[in-house]
Prior knowledge:
Chain A is an alpha/beta fold. Chain A is about 35% helix and about 15% strand. Chain A folds into two domains: about 65-80 and about 345-445, Aspartate Aminotransferase, domain 1; about 80-340, Type I PLP-dependent aspartate aminotransferase-like (Major domain) (Aspartate Aminotransferase, domain 2, 3-Layer(aba) Sandwich), CATH 3.40.640. Chain A has 13 helices and 15 strands. In chain A, the strands form four sheets. In chain A, strands 2-8-7-6-5-3-4 form a seven-stranded mixed β-sheet, sandwiched between helices. A four-stranded antiparallel β-sheet of chain A has the order 11-12-15-14, with helices on one face. Chain A has a two-stranded parallel ribbon with strand order 1-13. In chain A, helix 5 packs parallel to helix 11 (about 330-365) and helix 6 (about 135-150) packs across helix 7. Chain A starts with 7 loop residues before the first helix and ends with a helix. In chain B, strand 11 (about 435) and strand 12 form a beta hairpin. The longest helix of chain B has 20 residues, at about 455-475. Chain B is α/β, with parallel strands linked by helices. Helix content of chain B is about 35%, strand content about 10%. Chain B is globular and about 75 Å long. Chains A and B meet through helix 1, helix 2, helix 3, helix 4 and helix 5 of A and helix 2, helix 3, helix 4, helix 5 and helix 6 of B.
Amino acid sequence: xxxxxxxxxxxxxxxxxxxxxxxxxxxxxxxxxxxxxxxxxxxxxxxxxxxxxxxxxxxxxxxxxxxxxxxxxxxxxxxxxxxxxxxxxxxxxxxxxxxxxxxxxxxxxxxxxxxxxxxxxxxxxxxxxxxxxxxxxxxxxxxxxxxxxxxxxxxxxxxxxxxxxxxxxxxxxxxxxxxxxxxxxxxxxxxxxxxxxxxxxxxxxxxxxxxxxxxxxxxxxxxxxxxxxxxxxxxxxxxxxxxxxxxxxxxxxxxxxxxxxxxxxxxxxxxxxxxxxxxxxxxxxxxxxxxxxxxxxxxxxxxxxxxxxxxxxxxxxxxxxxxxxxxxxxxxxxxxxxxxxxxxxxxxxxxxxxxxxxxxxxxxxxxxxxxxxxxxxxxxxxxxxxxxxxxxxxxxxxxxxxxxxxxxxxxxxxxxxxxxxxxxxxxxxxxxxxxxxxxxxxxxxxxx
Amino acid sequence: xxxxxxxxxxxxxxxxxxxxxxxxxxxxxxxxxxxxxxxxxxxxxxxxxxxxxxxxxxxxxxxxxxxxxxxxxxxxxxxxxxxxxxxxxxxxxxxxxxxxxxxxxxxxxxxxxxxxxxxxxxxxxxxxxxxxxxxxxxxxxxxxxxxxxxxxxxxxxxxxxxxxxxxxxxxxxxxxxxxxxxxxxxxxxxxxxxxxxxxxxxxxxxxxxxxxxxxxxxxxxxxxxxxxxxxxxxxxxxxxxxxxxxxxxxxxxxxxxxxxxxxxxxxxxxxxxxxxxxxxxxxxxxxxxxxxxxxxxxxxxxxxxxxxxxxxxxxxxxxxxxxxxxxxxxxxxxxxxxxxxxxxxxxxxxxxxxxxxxxxxxxxxxxxxxxxxxxxxxxxxxxxxxxxxxxxxxxxxxxxxxxxxxxxxxxxxxxxxxxxxxxxxxxxxxxxxxxxxxxxxxxxxxxxxxxxxxxxxxxxxxxxxxxxxxxxxxxxxxxxxxxxxxxxxxxxxxxxxxxxxxxxxx
Lengths: 448, 506
């Protein structure tokens, strides 16, 4: 077997040195009735080429050749080939968590740079590296807010990604956390009046997402102010991180939970991505996840090491701030390389292109009779359209034209049937937008 | 390497005049320190729709100018920066990485290749199910493989990593017990367990009761009998244990728990000692997680990503996180969200799909031959044990499987502890083993070679360890001040935690 570096005679030599006649002997500590007598009936063994053929055949059964207007927490953005070249270097790819600082300085310095970039983007003072994804980052942010506030009641905007809210519900169920939901107004933004009525002295935090699940930018400053009047924390989720190249950062928030997938990670059918939590310095000891800090050696050379580990499970066990151990380090590295390539101007330009393309698409689509924008609030690269018929039926027609159309959000919001979420990033061309609009027009003209 | 040589290496670098500091890779700064206005490393295709004025489009309240302090560097500078950083890392690709419990085995490159294929990496989790059949087929084949390897009945691939697998498993136990009328209060955890076990139990809403290992480092069955009662939801046990030893009375433990209505959770971190040899489903385990980044070779990537699938017995299937994979009567695959008894989601989307792809590629490469990988891992650990026994103290003499745990008791006499030995190992060209874990062994040296090491590499490692043992006796100062060959020496971690600097500032 090509991955195993021993010849048959070397195996025998090693067994002889051990004093065993066969490898089977080394398993004698397993009670005999539990030892398998036969090899497992697994598919394989496959050569490298057969493995490539198997996965290529699976790729052919997917959506190649279609133009997609899906977003909703997973975004298709341009990625430089440089990012992949760097993260495939064995020194990054095949190293472990940098507990041994002296021979992990590469990973540690890159983490330190990631933390800095995340602070700059979010307007926060400290960021970890990393959480499993945006949804678990948000859940951990809420648990963190509960620890800081000593309260157990959480007010969550219904316009937060439905799957993020489901994850929060799973974690909260056994932790005595009460979740109260708050709706939206005609703008698609959080209902501020309702929010004022729901935030009390026992509220741990207010959770909003911006841009929210409907693509609408939330008034984070006002939301945070409302939370702060009752000494509750303001927690902000961000699923589309590229928005931070154009939209005001949530600096007024106390904790930001962000999904970094947009920074150099392919959609990959749901993962792996990288979540991150950013917060204020004063809350750092309540933060989950790993942190790299600057340090120096005996000769005064600058280096980096994992720090404040007394928050973590391997030291604190049941008193840890989280159970997270393995995180998404390589994905965080991808985000770091990607952002360094884009740089100040590149990120700004990418964000501006998203805004321009989405605005152009919205204008084109709403020219179609019966199609209108569902909400009036400000949007970045996603918007909800209201159709005169079921989104699912329309999507069947679009599929025939090799277009993956709007996401039917009625799946999660029964009151929003006939509404579809459209995402347009810089990867979509004007011609594709026009083709989409034309196809949608035809689809809606079809007899029902 | 002798110290004089090591010192010379470092001296050459530090003796250069500051205004001509030699090859930059010895003192590569932060990317922010290389930034200059107007440079960039990526260009977008020109905009083909009308330009939108951002402040006008969003309103002054929501519009932002460029991100303050963001780096401005060219492509070649990014390449050099991260390539230089990479050279400061140790990696499996460079040599043996014997971190016990972490299973640092070879990460096959074809896995990386297939995970990046167009039609795999490009797929969106919300695209129509009929355009996702390839992705779902990958999940189905992987599920089948994991069930065969573990001898369990049902599986979820959703959990992001081992710790989330643990949480999922405990939530399944909780949901099952609730369906029987009482979720119970406590989870039992041996003192040899990974820190994630107790941290997870708390998030699942359970109290932790730590149980002591017996004189052989195994589950103390008599103690278990005494403490299992109607308050106990389950026992979390790692098998083989963190000593690298098979829990011989595991089936008995399962029976004690089952008789009391409690369940047995197995931490599958060490499944690489069992794959193809024994199946947890056969010895009484009700639920376990697998670390695909350990047993199934997906790269650790400096800390992640991983994936932590959970396999269960039939009784727990109704409670699995939604969605689960289903097959329609006409043959197509779908995601089944209609799961009224589900514990809910533990993360967004189907899981770390790209990691699942890599794990399947690994499994397909071996097929039934996965047993050979397990055997080689166990041969390597026992070979190292044999050759180092007597040189280092072996606190538990029970037979080792995939890893061996020594202690620093012999070297302690000269004031040398496990961390010192670990740091000196760096000078010999190896990554350290796991230090100071498991907690039941004071001053532990936890060594896991994996199947990926040749006899030659094992022999080099053994020679290095023996040499360090000699140095510890003859020249302890040399060991205590190691490493001597790295870019930085031991860092002041206490100082770093006291006044944390966690980001660059201009």
